[in-house]
Specification:
Blueprint (H helix, E strand, L loop, with lengths): L13 H9 L4 H11 L2 E2 H8 L4 H13 L3 E6 L5 E6 L1 H20 L2
Antiparallel strand pairs: 1-3, 2-3
């Protein structure tokens, strides 16, 4: 039987890095919404998430954009139109979220 090799520092693991990108109450839900609906406006996200403040949603969106998981597209129209979508990097994370859904469906009690 093989022994599991424990890394010296958890923060140096890929698992820790991935968690740092998706941690937060709404980030995974935002990513899931963008996976399902492709392009979504701010107010649509707010309705999808339910009870979330504009400040919190805006903060999570900025962090996801900073981490290159989502793209913010601003259209030059009046009134302003802004849409959010997954980047290629964000799309690559969807396989992980999809497996969380599969596991949840298989293990739901």
């Amino acid at each position: 039987m093989e022994k599991c090799v424990v890394e010296a520092n958890f923060k140096d693991t890929g698992f820790s890095y991935t968690l740092s990108l998706i941690s937060g109450k709404y980030k995974m839900v935002i990513l899931y919404c963008l996976m399902e609906y492709k392009r979504v406006r701010f107010n649509e996200l707010r309705r999808y998430l339910g009870k979330v403040s504009d400040k919190t949603l805006s903060q999570h969106l900025k962090e996801l954009e900073r981490d290159a998981l989502i793209c913010r597209t601003v259209y030059p129209v009046i009134p302003p139109k802004v849409e959010y979508s997954l980047t290629e990097r964000g799309e690559s994370l969807m396989a992980v979220l999809d497996q969380l859904c599969v596991w949840g469906n298989e293990n739901r009690r």
